[in-house]
Specification:
Layout (H helix, E strand, L loop, with lengths): L9 E3 L2 E3 L13 H18 L12 E2 L4 H4 L16 E2 L7 E3 L18 E3 L1 E2 L3 E2 L1 E2 H4 L29 E6 L7 E6 L12 H18 L7 E3 L2 E3 L4 E8 L4 E9 L2
Parallel strand pairs: 10-15
Antiparallel strand pairs: 1-2, 3-4, 5-15, 6-14, 7-8, 9-14, 10-11, 12-13, 14-15
Length: about 250
């Protein structure tokens, strides 16, 4: 994702800090935090200024040593991330826009669930799978690691995930939608379901959500335009409370 160099800030407990004015020791700059801050501040900046999300090309994986350059900054005071860690960037090109969603009061604070997210990457270094493809019974051949578990049991970031999670979709202008979906297999080992299965469950519920509020038609009305399932792309599933997760989407602009 293209990071705007004039909008570089860090959010903690509702306050915002300019890194140039803060001691690096006061800011916990780990890979997951950097990833979240980049995504959140980028989205807010572009939306506030009526601009398009943009990048010069996909930046799916960038080593920490290249982080300053990736942020468009050569500032040597930029705090380093953890050695050996990698940051994931979401490449949102100029013709794409993140679909805005409500923020609920019960959601965790900014840092409670940092890094607890799943990116739906596709082959070729891009991200996002269309709801039309994900909601069908196709094998999703372009989804990276589609047959792998949607999260790793050995990853400490994903702790205390029960057999069902609450999926919450809150598009602006639409009522809130909550539904429990299976996240673990009903087996003795209770393994996580495959990533493609999670994508399909999310897509099918999103389709149902849109149909409920559009007279049975799976379309999204946004800023005077109509978008079908082929225009809406699921790119991330983010944890927002202990048991709740929010899928995030972008649309291809008409």
């Amino acid at each position: 994702m293209f990071y705007h160099p004039d909008y570089y800030r860090y959010s903690q407990d509702g306050e915002y800090y300019e890194p140039a004015q803060q001691s690096v020791d006061t800011i916990p700059w780990d890979a997951s935090t950097v990833q979240r801050v980049i995504a959140d501040t980028d989205a807010e900046y572009w939306e506030q200024h009526g601009l398009s999300m943009g990048s010069s090309g996909p930046l799916p994986r960038i080593p920490p040593s290249d982080l300053a350059g990736a942020l468009g900054s050569s500032d040597s005071t930029l705090p380093p991330v953890s050695p050996g860690a990698f940051c994931t960037y979401v490449p949102l090109r100029k013709e794409r826009r993140i679909i805005p969603q409500h923020t609920s009061e019960w959601e965790g604070t900014t840092l409670d669930y940092v890094g607890q997210e799943v990116i739906f990457a596709v082959r070729g270094g891009d991200v996002g799978i269309s709801l039309a493809q994900a909601s069908s019974r196709s094998a999703m051949p372009h989804l990276e690691n589609g047959e792998a578990p949607w999260f790793s049991l050995n990853d400490q970031r994903f702790s205390e995930i029960s057999s069902k999670i609450s999926l919450r979709i809150d598009f602006d202008g639409y009522p809130n939608y909550t539904r429990q979906i299976m996240s673990l297999r009903a087996t003795r080992s209770s393994d996580p379901i495959a990533l493609r299965e999670m994508a399909r469950k999310i897509a099918q519920d999103t389709k149902k959500y849109l149909e409920m509020h559009n007279g049975g038609v799976a379309e999204l009305q946004l800023d005077g335009s109509t978008y079908g399932l082929g225009d809406i792309f699921l790119f991330r599933l983010r944890r927002i409370s202990k048991g709740s997760w929010r899928p995030e989407y972008y649309i291809e602009r008409h």
